[in-house]
Amino acid sequence: MAFVFPQNILFKHCDPAGIVFFPRYFEMINDCVEVFFDTELGFSFVEIHKYGGVPTAEISAKFSAPSRHGDKLDIRLECIKIGRASLTLEIKAICGEETRFTANSALVFVNSQGRPQSWPNDLRAALEKFKKG
Amino acid sequence: MAFVFPQNILFKHCDPAGIVFFPRYFEMINDCVEVFFDTELGFSFVEIHKYGGVPTAEISAKFSAPSRHGDKLDIRLECIKIGRASLTLEIKAICGEETRFTANSALVFVNSQGRPQSWPNDLRAALEKFKKG
Amino acid sequence: MAFVFPQNILFKHCDPAGIVFFPRYFEMINDCVEVFFDTELGFSFVEIHKYGGVPTAEISAKFSAPSRHGDKLDIRLECIKIGRASLTLEIKAICGEETRFTANSALVFVNSQGRPQSWPNDLRAALEKFKKG
Amino acid sequence: MAFVFPQNILFKHCDPAGIVFFPRYFEMINDCVEVFFDTELGFSFVEIHKYGGVPTAEISAKFSAPSRHGDKLDIRLECIKIGRASLTLEIKAICGEETRFTANSALVFVNSQGRPQSWPNDLRAALEKFKKG
Question: What superfamily does domain B3-128 belong to in CATH?
Fold first, then answer.
């Protein structure tokens, strides 16, 4: 099962070449992860940031085709690997039949001192449902 | 020889956890590449975008330590691979002795139809000077 | 009648003080106007930008109370004045009973040379429905 | 005496119409104020945010001519009114002979509870030097 986050390409996302400026994709990725935690895991970024955080440790993205103003993307998130305190996600943006980008992101669950801490069991169970088959 | 781009961490770069929000690093990377083309290669993004562009095809980054408001980074750029129409860069941010991120970015030089085109010879020669040893 | 644009305050909107960084409000205002044109006026920013644009000529905002990560805003847009080629909007953000900001924005409808041009009659009629009473 | 903050218009600032997207001007304004406090007042935003902040209470801007990628702006800041805990600034962007925008911004100096507090005397004295004649 994938979590799907719809994202319309707005004026603010686009550059003078008329296509999405790639750092804006990373904002969309962060928004997608935030909404995933909030709506699917019942573990909001607001709550998490009271006691720590989920910083991104590593990320890579391949931009396979440009997106233009007005495009309607589906950003699909799946869990690749659920570690003790880490989480590797695949995040893919699709417009119609076309893949626009494929990203892999590794997050770490940290406490307020920035030390990695184990995911709570119920969160881990919720993540398992989104494991890539 | 590396191109060094100084970057102060400003209020706008930081998130509620008090550290740089990672998509802002990608804006800094883009700025660094833009200033590199403009000042070191004599081939400005303004000129390039009249007849095409240099879209980012792929990028990966590892964030090894957080940056905070007020930190003074040196962003170091070196050429890893100079292809016919592509360019792979290593971009590293350092604060004092500490590495904050290491990124690899692959750009493509395209014409106004988005087709890859060969780097001009003088540009290629200029890039060679920044080849990682 | 007001156009209401719901906006959740996300991690990316907030600064190290834990409140919305005010330039992000201007992005929200632009998004609100874009979605208003697209969904209520049937005159999308994508279409408009093929032949010209609707640049913001003037804007003012009063930030009456801070917004925090997780807040759910309603951004309400009403037309204050519909000129020949201009449009003055009031855009107000409300969270529960509290006003977070009140902005006044003046847009101009321009052609591809940047010259002001009259709003089409059907667009003007659509705008009238959102006139502040 | 005005504080002058040079700002090159970069690729990231521009929209599909090829001109600066107006919310980016507000980021530049914030950067200008931050650098002004840091270099001219000797009172850095980093220090201020340890014990409070300087939130923007009100801002207005008139965009008199568009800025394009590659333009070199001088952003000029002057103090209009120095209140007990407030500060009204005029911030104007000039490119060659042409004014690009004129903004008025009102900041408030607050403590960690968000309550207005008096500017320290030495800061007030430093601000007086930048009072608009």
Answer: Hotdog Thioesterase (3.10.129.10)
CB A4: neighbour CB atoms within 10 A? 12
Sign of CA pseudo-dihedral A31, A37, A42, A46: negative
Q: Where are the beta strands (DSSP E) in C37-71?
A: 52-53, 56-63
Which residues, in sequence order, are bridge partners of residue C106? C58, C88
How does pLDDT run along chain A (133 residues), one tens digit per residue? 999 999 999 999 999 988 999 999 999 999 999 999 999 999 999 999 988 999 999 999 999 999 999 999 999 999 999 999 999 999 999 999 999 999 999 999 999 998 999 999 999 999 999 999 8
Query: Residue C111: beta bridge partners?
Result: C52
Report yes or no: D94 and D50 within 8 Å, Cβ to Cβ.
no
ipTM for the whole complex: 0.96
Chain C neighbors of D24, CB-CB under 8 A: 23
DSSP-derived secondary structure for A35-87: HHHHHTSS--HHHHHHHEE--EEEEEEEE-S--BTT-EEEEEEEEEEE-SSEE
Residues from chain C contacting residue A12 (CB–CB below 8 Å): 27, 30-31
